[in-house]
Amino acid sequence: xxxxxxxxxxxxxRLWDSLMEMAKIGPxxxxxxxxxxxTDEDAEGRALFQKWCEDAGCSMGLDQMGNMFARRxxxxxxxxxxxxxxxxxxxxxxxxxxxVLGVLGGLEIIRTLNDLGIKTKHPIVATNWTNEEGTRYAxxxxxxxxxxxxxxxxxxxxxxxxxxxxxxxxxxxIGWRGDEEVGARKMHAFFELHIEQxxxxxAEGKDIGVVTHGQGLSWTQVTVTGKDAHTGSTPMPMxxxxxxxxxxxxEKVDEIAWSHAPHAVGAAGHIDVYPNSRNVIPxxxxxxxxxxxxxxxVITDMENRLRVAAxxxxxxxxxxxxxxxxxxxxxxxxxxxCVAAVRDAAERLGYSHTDIISGAGxxxxxxxxxxxxxxxxxxxxxxxxxxxxxxxxxxxxAAGADVLLHAVVETAEIVE
Length: 416
Ligand code: HGY
Ligand code: MN
Ligand code: MN
Hints:
416 residues, alpha/beta, Alpha-Beta Plaits, 9-stranded mixed sheet, 4-stranded antiparallel sheet, binds (2S)-amino(hydroxy)ethanoic acid
């Protein structure tokens, strides 16, 4: 396959303008975004993405999980398409680039090929995966997971948010449930551009992360049950304080993760105490423990030690405990051919680059199970993400999209 010409580049201004335009939808309170999945804001962002894709001459597809597919025809209509995308949904205090850069980077590839009149043998399909974040509906990467056969659609439709609203009902409510069977689409390859969401690339002064692996993830929801009681009149020995038990368990979570330093990580981002009243000892605490590591046996060890430590704590305090696995995937090794296409692209374009393991989960981690897959990463300021202050530079965005363009076009094979 002929490699694309070195001077083949995307339009960085247009990509940046599109990022800023999309960021106006579902604004946060501190300059970032709150465009959570299946909200009206998500629907608005989807409509804008669809309009842009149609303006670029794409035909649109939509499956029964709301995954969006914008197809640019190839010279060989029978050839399996090269897919390129990420997610438009954000955290409640999310940034402007997490996921969005990958979706709009895919669109920018199509816009650039249109500008230059370049035809590829394989069609190219820009993609938006529903509910990558897993914040409103656990688990993360829900819809790419259904697409890859990791979850059933019925199970996904039954997932409930904190208000008890079901995923399937909300997808219908916003009018973005398609007819296509989920996972019926076959791919020649899948590429995802994403900000690193960590400090490595910026610290090492690298423009591009060539993602060889993704670390594995485990989400265990823990429910501790004690007894509501008065914070004033209840003697200390009589208390069954679920909040205190949770605090002791979270101390153990930190200790367990540190015991596998430097690569393992652990914390709880979701924490609810009930009834959450200033003068009531919490009778219940519900929290999700997030463990991650590039090594599966480390994840398994952390999960097992969590249960043993937590059981000991609640038994000693006379409380009850339940565990529910609400998310997880094994560490991922991306396709060597696709990874090489990313690395060769960075080299050809003269961008500094380094191999990297993804700390965060991505739709690519599931799609890698059904198609040759690789990721391109760009740095982010101070490695900060899942924070409204998330920031990247215009040059980083352009470099990442240039590399994505070359990797996609080389895989899709230029014909004229
Ligand atoms: O949790 C993750 O790693 C991703 O940001 N959803
Ligand atoms: Mn993301
Ligand atoms: Mn995210």
